[in-house]
Specification:
Layout (H helix, E strand, L loop, with lengths): L9 H21 L2 H6 L3 H61 L8 H5 L29 H100 L2 H4 L6 E2 L8 E2 L9 H83 L6 H5 L7
Antiparallel strand pairs: 1-2
Length: 378
């Protein structure tokens, strides 16, 4: 067999290298304690921020480019419009100049018809040398010219006469209509004057009646006011007399109590009360002394009851203190027993630990034992 140098496929090697690099980066990311605990890939976040900023910058540049392109298009359109206006103006100027130079009215073949033989082409050749083609007016043309002119004059006169009669008739009708309108206006003015006169008379009569009513009403009000003043004076005098002769001013003691009958006590009229009598004051003093004695008796009874209650509380406090002492003694004994039991357990645990350390587990693992773990990210 012949030895042939075949080229190695570089894509496979590149793929392998790419996977190895990705695996190495993944190991570094996974086995990094800070990243694993924090839960954030700062590099990835920074890369995302960088890509986002690049995208924003590209969009901004694209927008600016589009803005510049729009401005350029607008300027181009404005320039094109200005150029077209200039071209149209130049074409119009050239066309006008061409008309004025090469298409004048004076140079046309029918100049005599358009301008009434004024400015027509003058023939400088003598008439004896001109032929039949140079003739413009021939004998026998327009034979009825005079008759036609007379007929036209007659028709014109008839039309003028009819127009004059029509105008005269219209003028008479307008004059008659104006006269009727004036008569109607005069009649309306007369009717308006009569109506205004009647309205003035009615208003005058109404004012007179209103004045009479107001005078009568004023007189009635004045009479009522005088009567009201007299009534108020009578009421004031009566009130003054009643006040001067009332029990309040005379200080009548019998008027304070009003007998109700049926064995009920008399009712005191507050508005007439002037004070208590000596009998009433003595009755109040006796009632007050009675209340004081009753209050003193209640105070003594309350004092005795309070002393008994305090004695009972003191007795209960002593009993509670003795109970607390007994409970403390029991807890102390229980704690001593618990301590003894814990010491026993500690000695047993220590003996167990010494057995494990000195007799059972005598071979300690080396670093190589721990290095065999977590060697791959899978």
């Amino acid at each position: 067999m012949y030895k042939v140098d075949l080229s190695v496929d570089q894509s496979i090697n590149k793929a392998v290298e790419r996977r190895r690099s990705a695996e190495t980066a993944r190991k570094a990311r996974i086995f990094d304690t800070r990243l694993r605990v924090m839960g954030l890939d700062v590099d990835a976040l920074n890369q995302q921020v960088h890509l986002k900023k690049q995208q924003q910058n590209m969009e901004m540049q694209r927008g600016k480019a589009f803005d510049k392109l729009r401005v350029w298009h607008d300027k181009a359109l404005l320039q094109q419009e200005a150029d077209e206006k200039k071209k149209r103006a130049a074409v119009h100027t050239d066309l006008t100049q061409y008309w004025s130079t090469h298409q004048r009215v004076e140079d046309s073949s029918d100049t005599d018809l358009k301008t009434g033989l004024r400015g027509a082409l003058r023939i400088t050749i003598p008439e004896s040398e001109l032929g039949p083609a140079s003739m413009q007016i021939f004998n026998g043309e327009d034979v009825e010219l005079e008759q036609r002119k007379k007929e036209q004059i007659r028709k014109t006169e008839e039309e003028l006469r009819a127009q004059k009669e029509d105008n005269e008739r219209r003028r008479r009708e307008d004059k008659h209509r104006e006269m009727l309108v004036n008569k109607m206006l005069v009649y309306e003015d007369l009717m308006g004057v009569q109506q205004r006169t009647q309205e003035e008379e009615c208003k005058k009569a109404a004012r007179i009646a209103l004045d009479n009513y107001n005078h009568a009403l004023a007189a009635d009000q004045a009479q009522n006011l005088k009567e009201q003043h007299r009534q108020e004076e009578r009421e004031n005098l009566s009130e003054m007399w009643h006040t001067l002769t009332s029990d309040m001013m005379t200080e009548c003691a019998e008027a304070v109590e009003r007998q109700l009958g049926d064995g009920r006590p008399p009712k005191v009229q507050v508005e007439k009360w002037k004070g208590m009598r000596p009998e009433q004051l003595n009755e109040i003093l006796r009632e007050r002394e009675k209340q004081r004695v009753e209050k003193q008796r209640q105070y003594e009874a309350e004092k005795v009851k309070k002393a008994a209650w305090e004695f009972q509380l003191l007795k209960q406090a002593r009993e509670a203190e003795e109970e607390e002492k007994r409970g403390a003694e029991l807890r102390r004994e229980k704690r001593i027993q618990t301590d003894l039991y814990n010491m026993h357990l500690a000695r047993e645990q220590q003996a167990r630990q010494e057995y494990l350390d000195k007799k059972l587990y005598t071979n300690k693992p080396t670093k190589d034992y721990f290095y065999q773990f977590n060697t791959s990210s899978r």
